[in-house]
């Protein structure tokens, strides 16, 4: 069993938004890909086991256990894996779900959405478009103005307080 991944539909088949994208050489193959492209071994070495599981294996932290579900403060929530700014604290709200919830991303280009049929549900998975990290899911039961709820794992985010304003 050389390949021990139990997630066969991993991170390679997302539609890419070709924007500000740098081509990287990985193992001799030229890949016109994401801004941040690393091998599984590199991600595994770089991320904590929990963060690796959530962002690279599409895991989910338990509700009410993450660092940010009840977190307040003005600033930006960045992708924990690549540092891209993904969500603004102005769009964070208390959904009661136990996960940090936002009604929109900083920029639609920053995230990718894809249908997810795992766990016998039809959901929409949200990933970081820069590095492909799994972030969480988006549901259509959020507040106005979008009516969307981006239900994101705390472990996929890194909060940076806004000190300028
Ligand atoms: Zn990222």
Briefly say what this structure is.
This protein is mostly beta strands. The protein is built from two helices and eleven strands. Strand 1 and strand 2 form a beta hairpin.
What does the model show?
The chain has helices at 40-46, 49-56, and strands spanning 23-26, 29-32, 75-79, 85-88, 92-93, 101-102, 111-116, 123-128, 134-139, 149-152, 157-161. It has 165 residues and is mainly beta. It has a single domain, classed as Peptide methionine sulfoxide reductase (Metal Binding Protein, Guanine Nucleotide Exchange Factor, Chain A). The structure holds zinc ion. Zinc ion binds at residues 79, 81-82, 84, 128, 130-131, 133.
Element layout with pairings:
Layout: E1 23-26, E2 29-32, H1 40-46, H2 49-56, E3 75-79, E4 85-88, E5 92-93, E6 101-102, E7 111-116, E8 123-128, E9 134-139, E10 149-152, E11 157-161
Antiparallel strand pairs: 1-2, 3-4, 3-11, 5-6, 6-10, 7-8, 8-9, 9-10
Bound molecules: zinc ion (ZN).
| CATH fourth-tier homologous superfamily | Peptide methionine sulfoxide reductase
Given as residue ranges, the uncertain stretches (5+ residues, pLDDT < 50) are 1-32
Number of distinct beta strands: 11
User: What is the succession of H and E elements?
Assistant: EEHHEEEEEEEEE
Core attributes:
29% strand, 165 residues, 2 helices, 9% helix, mainly beta, globular, disordered N terminus, 11 strands, six-stranded antiparallel sheet, binds zinc ion, three-stranded antiparallel sheet, Metal Binding Protein, Guanine Nucleotide Exchange Factor, Chain A
């Amino acid at each position: 069993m050389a390949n021990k991944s139990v997630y066969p539909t991993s991170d390679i088949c997302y539609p890419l938004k070709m924007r500000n994208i740098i081509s990287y050489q990985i193992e001799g193959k030229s890949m016109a890909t994401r801004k941040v492209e690393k091998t599984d071994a590199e991600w595994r070495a770089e991320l904590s086991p929990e963060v690796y599981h959530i962002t690279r294996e599409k895991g989910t932290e338990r509700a009410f256990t993450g660092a940010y579900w009840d977190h307040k403060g003005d600033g930006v929530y960045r992708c924990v894996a690549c540092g891209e700014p993904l969500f603004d604290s102005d769009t964070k709200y208390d959904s009661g779900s136990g996960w940090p919830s936002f009604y929109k991303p900083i920029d639609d280009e920053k995230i990718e959405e894809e249908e997810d049929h795992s766990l016998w549900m039809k959901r929409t998975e949200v990933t970081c478009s820069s590095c492909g990290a799994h972030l969480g899911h988006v549901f259509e039961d959020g507040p106005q103005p979008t009516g969307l709820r981006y239900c994101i794992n705390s472990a996929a985010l890194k909060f940076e307080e806004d000190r300028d304003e």
